[in-house]
Every structure is written in structure tokens, then in C-alpha cells.
Amino acid sequence: MTIIDQSASAASGAERQSGAEVQFQRVVKDYGQGARALDGVSLTLAPGEFVALLGPSGCGKTTALRSLAGLEDITSGSVLIDGVDVAAVPTNKRDLGMVFQSYSLFPHLTVLENVEFGLRMRRVPAGERRTRAEESLELVGLGHLGARYAHQLSGGQQQRVALARALVTRPRVLLLDEPLSALDAKVRVQLRDEIRRIQSELQITTLFVTHDQEEALAVADRVAVMRAGVIEQIGTPEELYSRPSSSFVAEFIGLSNRFAGRLVGGGVDVLGQRLPVIGQHPDHGDVTALVRPEDIVFVDATESGADAVVLASSFLGPVRRTTVELPDGTLVAVQHGATERLEVGEAVRIRFTGRPVPVQQR
Q1: pTM of the predicted model, to two decimals?
Q2: For 334, which of 105, 189, 289, 312 is 20 to 30 Å away at the CA?
Q3: Pick from 156, 109, 167: which is nearest to 134 by CA?
């Protein structure tokens, strides 16, 4: 609570930013010998928008960010900031703020001096440097630690200093390359929420790279899911979770159960129940249906459904996730209310809610 109070007061005294429009236009990045990191990536970030690039290791998300930063030369295509192709513009002239996984603070400088460093390189007068650095530290809740050195700070505090250093130059685009991955779980949640709040307050266009789906869904206006150098789908967190365009997105975003099914009449037959199909799918044949745990419910023994036996149940706060086994050995995760508690070995019956599901060819 203290951090929020400090940063809110600082933000009221700081200049509100004006985010830039960022465009990737059919960007290709080849590393030679058939290694293509980006394969025609096109993406537009509106001014002030927070977009996350999400995907497994090697999918090209960091290469895309580094291409925008000027740290990678692209093979073809264009990267534009406010309509200007920045291919020939050096990194330090692109009006960017960058925060990476490693804090990279200067150990011989104080926190305040670390934050001032970018302004010093820009030859900003000493008085203005100090004022802006102090404002930036207040913004991230560290105004009281300006005299300390990096080794006197926790990991979360050091990353806040790195964020303050990126913000102090008042960039129009903020690049975040897995900035939370080195932190423990509780600090990660706190800092990700702070990053989102500060970004919303200052309206800086932000590109956030992560392999953590929870982080991406929690903070981004839109999420671009990448695979093998291409954007598989881009949309709001709600769209990606509820209406994945492919089985890859459905399996990468959230948890899904896999059921053998058969496409019939525009739907898929699974466990004696026909479900609507969404996303890309074949016209007919045997498929695997991907069903979210919350799209399965327990029903009374007199209702139609599939018989199962409870194997385990986990309490997750407001919900409980129970694993059941079907007669053929298929394991199914069912997410339900925390007050509905089932015992291991108990015979149950499950049924689908009927929400549309993605499928993949078997």
C-alpha cells in the first residue's frame, strides 16, 4: 500500500507521456543456414497500448523486440515508429526505454546516480537531472532509497531501479524483455502490477516479452502468441482464452483436457455429446478436442454424462481442481467451486457445458 501511495503522488507531479505508434511490417530476420527467427511478422501497437509477445523459447519474441530496439538488423520488411522507418536510426536515437531480465546497475553508483545516468549522457543540466531522477524513483516507490548502492537492494528493488532508469528519459516506447523472470513469485506479481499501473498512468506504448502466460494475460491490452517466427494469433486476453484460433494457442494459453472426438455436421462428438467447434479445423474425421477444466461439470447420476472416478482434488482458493479418470484411463481435470469437495475414489459423472472447443487432427 505504501508503494502505491508514493507512486501515485509522484505520477501526479510527473509529465504524462505521449506514446508512439509502432509498426512491424512483414519483418523477416534470418541468421543464415536456414535459421529464420522472424518470418513475415506484422504487428501494430497503438499509441499508449500495452502489447505482450508470448510464446515458447525460440519462437522469435525477443528477436522482434531487439529489432525494434535496433539491437538486431532485420533481413527484410520495415519497423516504424510514428510512421518513420527506423532501420537506419541507431538505438540511442529511437526514443526508447529498455528493461531486461538482468538489472545491469552500475555497482559504483548510487541508486539516484544510476537513474540519472541516461540523462547525463544526454547532457541534461545537473539540477534537472536530479529532479527528474527523484521523480522517477518516486514513481516506482523507491524515492527513499536514492543514496543506497545496488548491493544494498533486493532483486525486486533493483529491477524497480532499472525501470526508473528506463522511464526517466521520458521515452515514447518502453521495451520489457522478461524483466520479472529472475524474481520470486510474490515479488513478480507485485512488480508486474506496478509496471501495468505506471504504464497506464504515463501512457507509454509498451512491448512486453514473456514466456509466462499468466503475466501476459494479467497486464497486456493485447497478447500476440508466437510460434516459429510467426504470430499465431493476436487479441485481448479474453479472446485468446475463450476463442483460440488454433490448437497451439488453446494449449499454450491456459489448461486444456484432450479428448478423442469425431467431426460430424459442423460439430465434434465427444463422450456422447456434440460440441460446437471454433478456430481452424479439418472438415471431417477423427480429431482431438481441447476442453477447458471449467467447461466440464459434475452432474447427478440420473443425468446423461460420462462415468468417472475421483483421483485427486486440489484447493486453489476460490476454486478447486479435481482430477478424475474415465473407464478408458483418460485423465480429466475439472474446475469447480471450492465448496464442492469430492473424496478420492468417489464415483462421479461429468458432462460438458457445451461451450465451443478447438480441435486438432489426430
Answers
A1: 0.84
A2: 189
A3: 167
